[in-house]
From TrEMBL, chain A:
<feature type="compositionally biased region" description="Basic and acidic residues">
    <location>
        <begin position="156"/>
        <end position="167"/>
    </location>
</feature>
<dbReference type="GO" id="GO:0046983">
    <property type="term" value="F:protein dimerization activity"/>
</dbReference>
<keyword id="KW-0804">Transcription</keyword>
<feature type="region of interest" description="Disordered">
    <location>
        <begin position="134"/>
        <end position="266"/>
    </location>
</feature>
<dbReference type="Pfam" id="PF00010">
    <property type="entry name" value="HLH"/>
</dbReference>
<keyword id="KW-0539">Nucleus</keyword>
<dbReference type="GO" id="GO:0003700">
    <property type="term" value="F:DNA-binding transcription factor activity"/>
</dbReference>
<dbReference type="InterPro" id="IPR011598">
    <property type="entry name" value="bHLH_dom"/>
</dbReference>
<dbReference type="InterPro" id="IPR024097">
    <property type="entry name" value="bHLH_ZIP_TF"/>
</dbReference>
UniProtKB/TrEMBL annotation, chain B:
<keyword id="KW-0539">Nucleus</keyword>
<protein>
    <recommendedName>
        <fullName>IBH1-like N-terminal domain-containing protein</fullName>
    </recommendedName>
</protein>
<dbReference type="Pfam" id="PF26576">
    <property type="entry name" value="IBH1_N"/>
</dbReference>
<dbReference type="GO" id="GO:0005634">
    <property type="term" value="C:nucleus"/>
</dbReference>
<keyword id="KW-0805">Transcription regulation</keyword>
<dbReference type="InterPro" id="IPR044549">
    <property type="entry name" value="bHLH_AtIBH1-like"/>
</dbReference>
<dbReference type="GO" id="GO:0006355">
    <property type="term" value="P:regulation of DNA-templated transcription"/>
</dbReference>
<dbReference type="InterPro" id="IPR059002">
    <property type="entry name" value="IBH1_N"/>
</dbReference>
<keyword id="KW-0804">Transcription</keyword>
Length: 473, 195
């Protein structure tokens, strides 16, 4: 962030340029990036050219720095090297040779991939067939539907348990979840991409994918598990009503027609049985899948959008929400112009900080019930202590300077709220420290909201964190 | 970058908002001292400052809508003096030029897309007379997307996926804007009561 420390901010009187807009590129590239920016964001990231088909969930541009942004592509490129498959273990789905070109170890890694598990869990709500799954890691199992007669069954179960744990960790707490997610995904050999609405599967496959039957029929397919037996394709999808024997036949045809070839690095989307496999169809499928991913994120962001079904209704909600926000901005600027005719916000920030503090304090009771019951809360003491609270810190400072306590509070890490408790205990004696602890508790509020996003005062942070969390999946 | 840390984004936003509001107020007192701004002008000034602050906090390079928002304001010549003060003359010129260019491009693409739409409508009408429910639904979604395109700054140039991504980004920032302005309002009211 290029905002300097408060004392380095330009003086308020006659500035020529306050806000550095960073227009340091000519507008032509800017414009072209305006037209094509989301796509270019996804394609620019990986050096290996894998992203054209969008096998990895496209990271929205503000999620660019997330730990998970690179592993999918990396893993995919590694995937290609596995292509000369060792003979598959017997008993995987009762199809000894067919369609099971990958050793079970890969499957385990696949199963252990927390990102995939989580995405699968997240998307299972969309999946018509995933009704029993819920949002935990349990959704993974029916999707895989392994016959489980394979020798690797035991370890598979263990890995599944792992997946569950990790997804549950990373689900509610994005801050803490990043690390295990990252570690696990780094350790894994591959990462699968979730498919929006369970519609398409992109399996990292080399060119053999295009040799699959291309009946041209578009069917909604679930996420692909190409190393699974053919049987669970049927169980998972239910739209392709093919018998096991038929699958076996086709699988045999496939595997026999597929010579072990050197890995190629550009095909990542594998069509399911019965889907068109020409590049246009694949690209279209990937695009649709990304769109539904965005819709899902928007759905999480827009209040009241959770319950609606159907894209049109959802778009309606989004439109209404954006309109209401824009109208609110209009109204608020009118209100500001009315309330503050001089547009003089110079001595406002102390009020602002107090306001933030007060608006957050009711929340504290819900987030720290023990603290509220036990110790006297600072904001209860505040009226008695009166003005020194605000004045002592902010009166001598100008506008910029008074942001300073906020700075400190924001920059401080919110590891635990013990300092907050300490601040409560000696709040009566020290006003200054008490103030800072207050601010810190405000910040802690923000963290606490990642679990409970209900209130309007801080819902921005909370929702952003949820979005942020989703971005990292 | 900004979206990565919502708290930092909000803080930067607030800093810039206060700064640009200060500039707006300062400009009012210094330049047009004789004739104070009317309510509507003040409102527009607040609106403009908050929008520019939001765009700059988000980073115009990171988010196309931020660029488009500033360009949209720059397109209005009445905003010129204030915008010049807030973002500087050079940036203002660039924004205005960019707005003009993008408008031209969008206009052209709209013409072509309109032509295409008419053609496809004719084709679909010819192919299946009773489009059915799915076709109707698709048409509804298309219409909604068209509305959304008008709402998101710079959305006219976007389609499907990119439009949705921009909307996502924009909604997040808009939420922050509303919240910060609410906070400012509350603070001002308290100040009013105290004073």
């Amino acid at each position: 962030m290029n905002c300097g420390p408060p004392d380095q901010l330009p003086p308020a009187t006659a500035p020529s340029c306050f806000l550095n807009l960073n227009w340091d590129q000519s507008m032509d590239p800017a414009l072209s990036s305006m037209v094509s920016s989301p796509a270019s964001n996804s394609t620019a990231a990986p050096p290996d050219g894998l992203a054209l088909h969008g096998i990895s969930p496209q990271q929205p541009h503000y999620g660019g720095g997330t730990p998970l942004s690179s592993p999918p592509k990396l893993n995919l490129s590694m995937m290609g090297q596995f292509h000369p498959y060792p003979p598959p273990p017997p008993g995987a789905g009762g199809l000894p040779i067919l369609e099971n070109p990958m050793p079970m170890g890969h499957l385990d890694q696949f199963l252990a991939d927390p990102g995939f598990a989580e995405r699968a869990a997240r998307l299972s709500g969309f999946d018509a067939r995933g009704g029993g799954g819920g949002y935990g890691g349990a959704a993974v199992q029916p999707q895989f539907g392994l016959p489980d007669a394979s020798p690797a069954g035991g370890s598979k179960e263990m890995e599944l348990g792992n997946t569950r744990d990790e997804s549950s960790v990373s689900g509610p707490a994005p801050g803490g979840g990043e690390i295990p997610l990252k570690g696990a995904s780094d350790g894994n050999a591959r990462k699968r991409k979730a498919s929006g609405k369970g519609k398409s599967k992109d399996s990292p496959m080399s060119t053999s994918a295009s040799k699959e039957d291309s009946s041209g029929k578009r069917c909604k397919s679930t996420e692909e598990r190409e190393n699974n037996a053919a049987g669970e394709e049927n169980s998972g999808k239910g739209k392709v009503a093919q018998s096991n024997s038929e699958n076996g036949k086709k699988g045999g045809k496939e595997s026999s027609s597929k010579p072990p070839e050197p890995p190629k690095d550009y095909i990542h989307v594998r069509a399911r049985r019965g889907e068109a496999t020409d590049s246009h169809s694949l690209a279209e499928r990937v695009r649709r899948e990304k769109i539904s991913q965005r819709m899902k994120l928007l759905q999480d962001l827009v209040p009241g959008c959770n319950k609606v079904v159907g894209k049109a209704v959802m778009l309606d909600e989004i439109i209404n929400y954006v309109q209401s926000l824009q109208r609110q901005v209009e109204f608020l600027s009118m209100k500001l112009a009315t309330v503050n005719p001089q547009l003089d916000f110079n001595n406002l920030p102390n009020l602002l900080a107090k306001d933030m503090h007060q608006s957050c304090s009711p929340l504290q009771s819900s987030h720290f019930p023990l603290e509220t019951s036990g110790a006297p809360l600072p904001y209860i003491n505040q009226p008695q202590q009166g003005n020194p609270l605000g004045c002592g810190l902010t009166n001598g400072m100008d506008n910029q300077g008074s942001m300073h306590p906020l700075d400190q509070a924001f920059c401080r890490q919110m590891g635990s709220h013990h300092p907050f408790l300490n601040g409560v205990s000696d709040a009566a004696s020290q006003v200054g420290a008490f103030w800072q602890d207050d601010l810190q508790s405000v910040v802690q509020m923000d963290m606490g909201q990642s679990q409970e996003i209900a209130t309007s005062s801080n819902s921005y942070n909370g929702s952003l964190q949820t979005v942020h969390m989703k971005m990292e999946l | 970058m900004a979206m990565h840390d919502p708290r930092r984004f909000k803080k930067a936003f607030m800093e810039r908002l206060l700064l640009s509001l200060q500039v707006a107020a300062g400009g009012e007192s210094s330049s047009s001292n004789s004739k104070p701004m009317g309510l509507r002008e003040r409102r527009d000034a607040v609106r403009l400052s908050s929008d520019v602050a939001m765009a700059s906090a988000r980073g115009p390079r990171a988010a196309p809508w931020a660029r488009a928002l500033v360009a949209h304001h720059a397109a209005d010549p009445r905003n010129a003096p204030l915008l010049r003060r807030i973002i500087g003359a050079a940036a203002y010129h660039r924004a205005a030029a960019a707005g003009e260019r993008s408008r031209r491009i969008v206009r052209r693409s709209q013409q072509s897309s309109r032509r295409k739409r008419i053609r496809s409508l004719a084709m679909s009408a010819a192919s299946n007379v009773n489009g059915g429910a799915s076709a109707a639904a698709r048409r509804t979604v298309k219409g909604r997307m068209r509305v959304l395109r008008r709402l998101v700054p710079g959305g006219e140039a976007l389609r499907g996926l990119s439009l949705l991504s921009e909307t996502l980004d924009y909604v997040v920032c808009l939420k922050a804007q509303v919240e910060l302005m609410q906070t400012l309002c509350k603070g001002s009211q308290q100040q009013l009561q105290l004073g």
